[in-house]
Amino acid sequence: MTQVPSSASGNDLTRPHRQAFSRSWLYTQADIRDQIQRLRGTRNDQSASAIPAGQRATDASLRARLAAALQRNRALADENARLRRQLARALGAERHSR
Q1: What does the pLDDT average to over 16-25?
Q2: What is the average pLDDT value for the chain, to the nearest integer?
Q3: Are 71 and 46 members of one domain?
Q4: Cβ atoms of 61 and 51 closer than 8 Å
Q5: Contacts 24+ apart (CB under 8 A), 76-82
Q6: Looking at the structure, do residues 62 and 79 belong to the same domain, yes or no?
């Protein structure tokens, strides 16, 4: 049976197809499951504190960026529809001219 390396990250354990054991088997092993949960907790704690609070985006800033992205998406969808209509007219005109 393959042993889980002590330096295994959560990403390695989420890819059982690369390992000689299944993920479900891992979770049946209490000591391994505890280590997985501990490593995931450590990784989540590190990622949350990686950016100082003063440098994190505020909710208002994130909402504004989302609204701008949605508006841009709508504008691009409108432009796409306009270009499709224009192409359809050009192809139709080409067919009639043959």
Answers
A1: 68
A2: 80
A3: no
A4: no
A5: none
A6: yes
